[in-house]
Each structure stands twice: as structure tokens, then as C-alpha cells.
Amino acid sequence: MIFQFLVALERCFEMQEGQSVYIERFGDVSVIGDGDAIQIESKYYKRDLSDLDENVWNTISNWIDSSFPLEKFSSLVLLTTQKVGKRSKWNGWNEKSFSERKTILDEIRRKRTKSEIIKKIFEKVFSPDNSSRLKDIAKKLTLDYLPNDNVSYYNKLRDIHGSHLPKIQRERYINALYGYIISPHAIENNWEIKYADFNKEEIEFSKKLQENTTIFPDKIKLADIDANKYTESPFVQKIKDIEYDEVLPEAVSDYAHTAQMIIQEIKISPTIKSSYDEYEENLERKYKTRYRKACRNCGEDEIINKSQDLYDDIMLSDDGTFHTYKAIPSYFHSGVMHILAEDNPEVVWKLKIKENE
After folding, report:
1. What are the Cα distances from residue 297, in Å, to 246, 292, 310, 313, 355?
2. Which of the chain's ends, N or C, has fewer CB atoms near its CB within 10 Å?
3. pLDDT value of residue 357
4. Cβ contacts of residue 173 below 8 Å, gap of 6+?
5. Rounded to 5 degrees, what are φ and ψ at 351?
6. Residue 218 and residue 215: Cα distance in Å, rounded?
7. Are 286 and 347 in contact (CB under 8 A)?
8. Are 281 and 319 in contact (CB under 8 A)?
9. How far apart are CA 11 and CA 5, in angstroms?
10. CA-CA distance, 89 to 112, in Å (whole number)?
11. Which stretches of the chain drop beneath a pLDDT of 70?
12. Phi, psi for 37 (deg, rounded to 5)
């Protein structure tokens, strides 16, 4: 069922004005409205699709039944995670002519099978009474292969259709719209999702998530940070200047994780980046005030100890937030300070007593 609803959700995203997506109305998923009407049967299986595969023949059997409105649809799609076997007669079906397709069906029908299920389906499908409907199905049938499991299919929809949102919100966006199409409201509406209704939900969810991105993105997990890579970095040298080597592992980790977060999450959005730039300027301004104050209260024999105190005080400080985030994690705040120390020669930790200025 998960696969079927993901298929339905993708078709909702692809809908054009005047169309509706139906779930479980005529089959798994239907797209009806202005333009061609499409009926989609979705099958989630791992084995290769063979000549006598029950998924194909069950689907054809359902379509050949007189209760199915065959005339309503211009296209019948079997969307399956099954790859067509190289020796299967279904191979290349979509490119075959109508006469070639009839030949393929006849050749499969003549195959011997021990399956009582297939035998019973064949009796129905190849009945003279259903010959006209079978020809119609042969003309309209398309086999569509989707090489995704549920997780990768979900991730694909999230990354493609949520690409206009910050990464932190894309999963919430897809989850919200997935929930919308399977909600009691949708079911009570005969499981018809209209273009106008779905489009409205898309816009409202997007706006809400863009305006209310209040949770800071999860910390990016970086494995095997090479501390040696940063040995000559200015931010590391400035920590060494105050003889505070014990904080170097944490400083390097905070710097690396923050720099990566800025690249992956902050800079991709002009709005967030602009707010971040203000946050960085604010940190630098507060640093300069604290540095001046520390210098005024520092004696000649206290420079190293007082410099380490300044470093700790700034790393422990909570200097506000940016964008719409409610809070900034401490590693990110510290990382931004190290980035400032890396890029700005005037951001240092070692204090200067007033007499030597």
C-alpha cells in the first residue's frame, strides 16, 4: 500500500489544471480530467517479471472485467518494481506494434503452466466473449519499470518536489502531503484529489514551512575529521597563542561541522544566508566589546590565563539567533567564532594590556 500511495502522490504533483487523481476508484491510481485519462496499477515486487507473472495477468483480468470502464481510459499502465526478464516476451512490449502485441499474447497463452490461478485467468482473458476488450487493452497497455524501493522512492519525491524548501523542511512537506492524500477527508470525498485542492495544499504547506523554520538543522555527521589538515590554519594558531591546546580537538570539530552546515544548509537560501550574515556580524561586534573589556582588566602576568578565560566565556555565551530558528546549537556558535578567527586577522584570543597598545 505504501508504494501505491507514493505513486498516487507523484501523480498529484504531476497533475495539470482540470485533472483529478483517484485512489481505489477504478483501480490503484487514476488520472482523469482534461487530456488523456490514465489508469495505473502499481505492483511492488522484487522478482523479475516473467511471461506468466501473476501481477500482469491479474491486472489484465481486472481490466477485462465488464465492471471496469475500459472506454474511459486512453492509457493503461502497469507500474512495477519488477524488471522484465531478458528472455520474457514482455521485453520491449511498449515499442511493439498492435499486431506484434497480439502475437505476444497468443504465444504466452499457448505456454504450459501448472498454475491453476493462471489457467483460470487465461480462461477469462482469452474467452471469445472478451476478445474485443482484450484487443483494446493490448493497444492501451504500457509496462513501466520503477527501480526503486519504498525508501528510495520516498526520498526521490522529497528531494525533487521539496527542492524549493530548506532541507530541514522537505521531509515534513512530503509527509504532510502524503498525509493529505490518505486523510479521512480525502477518503470521504470518494478518494478524489482535485488539482485545485492539492495545489492549494502545496502552496499553504510551503508557505507555512518557509515562514516557520524554527528548528535548527540537525548537525551534519562528519566522519574522520583530519585534525592535521588544520594545523596551519589561523584559527588553530590563535588558540596555540594562548597555550590552550586542550580545546583544539573540539575547536576543529566545531569549525569543520559549522563550515559544512553553512555550505549545505545556509548558503543555499538567500533569505537564510542574509540573516546568517547579520548573525555573524553581531558575533564579531560582541567579541570586540568583550575583548576590549578583558584587555582593560588584564595585568602583564595574567595574559595567558585571562585570554583563556575570554575564550571560554565567548564559547559559552548565547549570542542570539538568526532567520526564524528559535535557538542556535553551541557547536555552531563556536564554529562561527572560529570561522571569524580564521578569516579576520583582528579576531584573536590573546589579550593586549593597555600600556602596550
Report:
1. 25, 9, 11, 15, 12
2. C
3. 43
4. 158, 161, 162, 165, 205, 206, 209
5. -80, 155
6. 9
7. no
8. no
9. 10
10. 15
11. 211-213, 354-357
12. -95, 135
Please give the angle made by the CA atoms of 231, 268 and 257, to the nearest 5 degrees: 30
Q: Which long-range contacts (CB under 8 A, 24 or more apart) does 155-160 make?
A: 157/6, 157/9, 157/10, 157/13
- Grid cell listed for 231: 594545523
Phi and psi dihedrals of 153, rounded to 5? -65, -45
Backbone angles phi, psi at 91, to 5 degrees: -60, 125
Q: How far apart are CA 230 and CA 254, in angstroms?
A: 12
For the chain, the C-alpha Rg in angstroms (whole number) is 32
Enumerate the H helices of the chain as residue ranges. Answer: 2-14, 54-64, 98-109, 116-125, 131-140, 150-161, 167-181, 184-188, 195-211, 234-240, 248-261, 270-296, 303-316, 330-343
End-to-end CA distance of the chain: 73
Residue positions counted in the chain: 357
Dihedral pair phi/psi, residue 47, rounded to 5° = -75, 160
Find all residues with CB under 8 Å of 332, minimum gap 6, and list them. 216, 254, 257, 258, 261
User: And the C-alpha cell for 25?
Assistant: 476508484
Q: Are 147 and 83 in contact (CB under 8 A)?
A: yes
d(CA 4, CA 80): 10
